[in-house]
C-alpha cells in the first residue's frame, strides 16, 4: 500500500497564531517541530496499517517547514517551491490513499488561522458553484486521480468542513477553535496518539472515490481587481465581475491552473502575511 501525505501547518497540534507558522515568527521553530511530529504520527499509523511506501509533501507556505532530520526515515519528502501541483505535488494514481495533516478551514469561517491559500488575497472559491477552500479542492483533485482521501487532521472547524464534503473521511480534531487566533488545545501527546491510531483505522477502511466526470467550473473572487484583470490573459479565463474569474476544465487541469493563479497573484500583489 502506497500512502501520500500532504502536510499543512495551521491545523497542526498546538499552533494558533501566525508567529507559530510563519518565519521568522518567534515560535515558528517550535511550530516546525510540532508539524514534523504530527506527520510522524501519521507515518507510524500508515506503516502499522501495512503501508509499503509513504511520501510526504511539505505543503505549507514556503514549503520548507518539515525538519528532514527528525522526519520518520521510512518516509520520502518533497520540500520547497514552486511546484506545479502545489499542495498535492507528487500524488499520482499509483497511490492507495491520501492523508491531509495539519489542514485548516476556508476563508470566511471562524477557524484557527482560517484562510484559502493566500490570506487576504482570496475572498472566496467556488467549485461547481459550491463554496470551498483548500480542503474541498484537494479532495476533488485527489478523487480525480482515483485516490481516496482517508484522513484529515486540524481544528474542529476544518474537520467539520471535511465531513461536509465527504463523511467517509476520518478526522482528528487536535484543537477546538475559540477564535481565529485562539483555541482550546488537545494535549500534544494525546493528539498525536489519536493521529496515529486513527490513521491506522482509516487505512483499513478505505472508500474508493466517485469523482464527477466531464468538465468542472472553478471561480475565484480576489480582494484585488488587478489580480482578476491580469488572470484574463490566461486562455480560457473569463471575468464574472471585476474581482471574480472563472475557468472550466477537468479537475486536475483546474488544480494545476489554480496554482498558476497563485503565482500570478503573488507577482501582482506581493501579499502581506494573512494575519
From TrEMBL:
| Gene3D superfamilies reported in the protein's UniProt record | Dipeptide transport protein
Task: Drop me one GO molecular function for this one.
Answer: metal ion binding
User: One Pfam family name from the record?
Assistant: Peptidase_M55
**Which positions are annotated as binding Zn(2+) 1?**
8, 10
Keyword Zinc (UniProt) = yes
Transmembrane helix found in the keyword field: no
* Keywords in alphabetical order: Metal-binding, Zinc
Q: Where is the active site?
A: 115
Which amino acid positions bind Zn(2+) 2, per UniProt? 8, 60, 104, 134
- Provide the protein name: Peptidase M55
* Organism, as annotated: Kribbella sindirgiensis
Amino acid at each position: 500500500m502506497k500512502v501520500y501525505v500532504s502536510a499543512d501547518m495551521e491545523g497542526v497540534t498546538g499552533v494558533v497564531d501566525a508567529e507559530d507558522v510563519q518565519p521568522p515568527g518567534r515560535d515558528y521553530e517550535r511550530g516546525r517541530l510540532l508539524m514534523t511530529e504530527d506527520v510522524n504520527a501519521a507515518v507510524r499509523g500508515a506503516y502499522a496499517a501495512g503501508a509499503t511506501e509513504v511520501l510526504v509533501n511539505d505543503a505549507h507556505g514556503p514549503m520548507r517547514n518539515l525538519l528532514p532530520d527528525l522526519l520518520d526515515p521510512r518516509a520520502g519528502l518533497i520540500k520547497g517551491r514552486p511546484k506545479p501541483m502545489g499542495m498535492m505535488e507528487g500524488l499520482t494514481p499509483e497511490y492507495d490513499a491520501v492523508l491531509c495533516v495539519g489542514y485548516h478551514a476556508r476563508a470566511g469561517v471562524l477557524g484557527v488561522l482560517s484562510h484559502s491559500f493566500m490570506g487576504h488575497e482570496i475572498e472566496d472559491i467556488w467549485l461547481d458553484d459550491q463554496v470551498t477552500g483548500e480542503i474541498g479542492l484537494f479532495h476533488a483533485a485527489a478523487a480525480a486521480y482515483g485516490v481516496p482521501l482517508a484522513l484529515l487532521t486540524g481544528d474542529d472547524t476544518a474537520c467539520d468542513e471535511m465531513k461536509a464534503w465527504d463523511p467517509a473521511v476520518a478526522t482528528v480534531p487536535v484543537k477546538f477553535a475559540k477564535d481565529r487566533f485562539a483555541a482550546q488545545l488537545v494535549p500534544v501527546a494525546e493528539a498525536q496518539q489519536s493521529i496515529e491510531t486513527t490513521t491506522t483505522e482509516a487505512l483499513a477502511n478505505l472508500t474508493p472515490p466517485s469523482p464527477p466526470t466531464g468538465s468542472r467550473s472553478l471561480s475565484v473572487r480576489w480582494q484585488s481587481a488587478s489580480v482578476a484583470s491580469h488572470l484574463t490573459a490566461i486562455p480560457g479565463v473569463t471575468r464574472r465581475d471585476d474581482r471574480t474569474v472563472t475557468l472550466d476544465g477537468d479537475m486536475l487541469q483546474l488544480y494545476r491552473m489554480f496554482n498558476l493563479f497563485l503565482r500570478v497573484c503573488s507577482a501582482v500583489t506581493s501579499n502581506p502575511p494573512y494575519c
